[in-house]
């Protein structure tokens, strides 16, 4: 929900309403088509239809909201207030329309997802904000495919209708609302002509963080999207379905084992059967009869079995219990096999251990006896060997004394030869070391002077470049500041011109159009001349700026040329380095040749010497020379590395300046973005707080209304109950009064009947028959007929009482409370 809902939100919610209706119809039709294809008996499903809300928005006959807005846009003096007033008058009785009394520019529509309040301010301007037909026609004639896709041509029917009817005023423009309704109708036709699949995206939480699931928020989204309603529609009939072969292969284990053994071949064929196979269907029907007792909870289709709600879950639970039972049996057999195998392995291991123990005992005994025999044989051989050793020891001592004398003479001569050889080696080493030291010192001095000159030139060149770069950056900053100031001055001038034009339009609204235009043009020209005069010649500043920019560009090119020269100089230094390495390799080869010649001369002079001493001396000499050459090579490599390091340092310092400038610019941009993001987050938080406060106020008012309504309902109910109690009490009192009167009347009738009966028994004449066949009262003794008693009047009184009691409906209840005593018979009764 937004803080203010306008025309855009109305169009979006209208499209959502139409798509929701299409979604409900697609779900309903899909279920109905599958039931009809499978031959399933089903009843009509009722679902929530939002057609009335759509009629409120787009129905033309009842002047929906969009049609009312189009009509208001066609009126020249139409306003948003008039549109809101017409909407209130037209749809005041509609159940999905609500208009608050406090705000005349606001109305509310009860959508499928909830009630949304819209503010009518700006509805007309947004509805009329359309592209002119001439511009659309020009775009439709474009050769670019993208432009043609953005501006499609009108339908042929519309062209024919437009060609047949005369062009009225304003008929070439089409409002945004009518275009939106047309495009939405086209979209609905496209959806109805295709096979639609719906994807619902649910946001798990409002914090945009992982591993957090808000159930209430997700349920609200599902309810607003109509997913719960679709699930309800699906579960009202047969929500679960399964092919015949799948049902047999999955739930055949719930049938008795005799049935499974009898239909083992049929089940194997049914697993590979195609959908709709009669054998698989018959097998599935037999399995269903055994597995499901209530036939009304499923229906057998042509290719699938359809289940009522919760039946498939019950079958899955039974299948899980059966599998658990089978798993227990399999585990039992497996544990039995494992323990049997373990027992056999233990028994075999014990047998092997016993055999090894017996073998160890026998082997120990054998070794003890063999050691004793060997010890006896060794003692005999040792005795014989000691005797022979004593005999040979005397001869060995004599031979050792002779060899010692010869060795002492040989050592004396070898020591003399070694001293002479060391003296010769020291003299040759001193001579060669002095020559190599002199050559190396000369080479080092030359290299150091050359490097010093190149480094001095590079330093001076880098220093000049740094100074020029600093100067250019300073000039560029000044130019940018000047350009910014000129741009601000020009913007201020334009604002002044616009303010003057607006003031002229407001002051001269009653004058003619031509006169107004001339006055505005004059004032605008005067303001422009004044602003340009105060600015001090913007054209001159622009020329100077362009000149400075060209100078900066030339300096940039000159720096690029210098960088290329530095690159070439670096390449020359690398070539010189490779040349020095080649010379060093040649010097090492020359030294090796000289060493070989000296070695040959030394071998020619000292051939008479001992071969072992000569080889040792040559090896030592070669080792010393190799170590010296390696030290020299290591020193040269270190110097080369130092040169490369200095070159890389110069390059790094040069590029670091540019990188620092880029980083500063990037940092400033990031700081601006962070500031804008902070302001946006602040605005969002403020909007969220305001929305939460509004929701809280609305909920509080709703709760108050509900509480007041409940209190009023309870009070009305209490008043009705009190009135009913009063009526019952009044009826009860009337009933008691009638019962007392009836009892009194009965007693009076009884007394009168007794008096009549006594009067009839006391007379002495025979009664005469009355004209109606009823015996008349007894006659007097004088022959004249006696005057009748007042019995008939009492009877009439009794009849009136009965009729009044029966008319009031209380005779049965009154007589039930009294004793069931019947009135005595009349005296004339037979």
Low-confidence stretches: 155-172, 508-541, 761-795, 804-830
Strand tally: 6
Number of helices: 21
Please write the string of helix (H) and strand (E) elements: HHHHEEEHHHHHHHEHHHHEEHHHHHH
Category from helices, strands and their pairing: mainly alpha
β-strand percent reads under 5%
Rg estimate, integer Å: 62 Å
Portion of residues in helices? over 70%
What oligomeric state do these chains adopt?
Answer: single chain
Please describe the biggest sheet, giving its number of strands, its sense, and whether it closes into a barrel: 3 strands, antiparallel
- Order of the strands making up the biggest sheet: 1-2-3
Question: How would you characterize this protein structure?
Answer:
This protein has 830 residues and is mainly α. It is flat. Strand 2 (106-110) and strand 3 form a beta hairpin. The longest helix has 197 residues, at 311-507. The chain has helices at residues 7-38, 51-58, 65-74, 80-90, 123-128, 133-140, 145-150, 156-164, 176-192, 215-225, 227-236, 244-251, 257-262, 264-271, 278-291, 311-507, 513-535, 538-605, 611-762, 791-808, 811-817, and strands at residues 97-98, 106-110, 115-119, 240-243, 298-300, 304-307. Residues 155-172, 508-541, 761-795 and 804-830 have low confidence and may be disordered. The two termini are 95 Å apart. The strands form two sheets. It has a three-stranded antiparallel sheet with strand order 1-2-3.
